[in-house]
Amino acid sequence: MDLVYEYGLFLAKIATVVVALVIVISLISNVAQRKKHQRGELRVTRLNEQYKTMQEEIAVALLDTHQQKQWHKEQKKKEKQEAKAAKARAKRGESAPSGKATLYVLDFKGSMDAHEVASLREEITAVLAVAKPQDEVLLRLESPGGVVHGYGLASSQLQRLRDRNIPLTVAVDKVAASGGYMMACVANRIVAAPFAIVGSIGVVAQVPNFNRLLKRNDIDIELHTAGQYKRTLTLFGENTEEGREKFREDLNETHQLFKQFVQTMRPSLDINEVATGEHWYGLQAQEKGLVDEIRTSDDLILQQMPQKEVVSVRYTRRKKLMDKFTGSAARSLDRLLLRWWQRGEKPLL
């Protein structure tokens, strides 16, 4: 009986050690994974291959059963030959024979705070590291605008491509307004869908004030500043006419900088005509010189595929559960603000 008891105790100790080792290994693995994904991941997708696969799937679906079997038989033979040739090239240290230029496709779906610029920065850095003189970049842009400093930085990232003489095309399928257009105008060419919203070269700021509500409830707010214009308008204090005037002056200065930037990027524009804060649909925007061509990004990509290797480049970060929740809430707020903005500007179809 004692022998059985001691043997059981021995097994329990072994099991405890094994469990402890598993826990330690799991912790080390999690830390390693966290470090690995701390900076994010660059995803590169060959769009030519995706399109070719889609074409083949549709073509095969239209064949009868006998033809489908024959096609699959020939396809397996072809794939085997290609794999054999690729293996032979690899042994000789040769790369795949392709003299085509590359079209790098980037996506920017901007929010009010333009936090997506962090990924855009990494994507452009990656493209600049490998781009050849004959390569081009296509940015599929969608943004109603937002904070000045965020979209100013996004525009500066696109300027890096122009500084390296890499042709940049911006395609607007839905909306590129205000800060979105600030980004778009950096491009060598702007392509827009017929009813894409473009323009809104203006600056807006709205500040609620609760001072009278607080006074009615005998609540005092003290605001201490050093510097005459450290705070012009406040949420809770009593605003002055001098503060309002300074606030409007700052808005006008920002608008002037915005106009100068657009004029520098697109010198043929009549800036005083288009910098009124209004927006236009694609066809109207083309007439005013805000865009160069009416076309969707899909048509543009399909047109380039026979001549170029079309590659999608995306930089993504692994999000924590809380980040996913707050990100979803922020996207919902962005959509709500965009809906209000559209309703206030023009009727919806």
Using brief descriptors, characterize the structure shown:
349 residues; alpha/beta; nine-stranded mixed beta sheet; 12 helices; 9 strands; extended; disordered C terminus
Could you explain how this protein is built, in words?
One of its GO terms (molecular function) is peptidase activity. Residues 161-310 form the Peptidase S49 domain. The chain crosses the membrane at residues 12-32. Helices cover 54% and strands 15% of the residues. The protein is an alpha/beta fold and 349 residues long. It has a domain at 203-268. Strands 1, 2, 3, 4, 5, 6, 7, 8 and 9 form a nine-stranded mixed beta sheet that branches. Helix 4 runs parallel beside helix 5. The longest helix is centred in the first third of the chain and has 35 residues, at 2-36. It is extended. The model is unreliable at 341-349 (pLDDT under 50).
- Beginning-to-end CA distance, first to last residue: 86 Å
User: Helix coverage percent of residues?
Assistant: 40-55%
Q: Any idea what the shape is?
A: extended
Tell me about the biggest sheet? 9 strands, mixed
Q: How many helices does DSSP assign?
A: 12
> What value does the average pLDDT take?
81
Give the amount of beta strand, in percent: 15-25%
* Low-confidence runs of at least 5 consecutive residues: 341-349
Order of helices and strands: HEHHEHEHEHEEHHHEHEHEH
Number of strands: 9
How large is the radius of gyration? 29 Å
Q: Which structural class is indicated by helix and strand composition? A: alpha/beta
Domain Peptidase S49: 161-310
Domain Peptidase S49 N-terminal proteobacteria: 2-158
EC number: 3.4.21.-
Transmembrane segments: 12-32
